[in-house]
Amino acid sequence: MIVAGFGFRKAATLESVLLALEGARHGRLCITHLAAPQDKAALLDPLAQKLGLPVIGVTPEALAAIATPTRSIASLTERGVGSVSEAAALAAAGAGARLIVHRCISPDRMATCAIAQGPTP
To answer: What's the topology of domain 7-108?
Structure first.
């Protein structure tokens, strides 16, 4: 399982989220799932439909339980986690997941994307 986790502002557009994903993927990673905080996961539906991928909504408790390498003041203030996108990717990928791409910020600074890989069965 390879999960693209997202953090984004309320005013983020589909283009913002897509550009964050493209920046994180570098055009070569095969993503299997998308993830975002549970209260914003539905906002990924247009991207999920475009890519044909499922969306995982991550609970606030699961986000808060993840230690991320990135420490964003905005993320810490808003969600209590260093990076929403990194935490969402790691939490959704499951226990033992590892971050393979740190947070990438969209050019308009409205969305971030990080990518995690779950353990192989």
So the answer is: Nucleotidyltransferase; domain 5 (3.30.420)
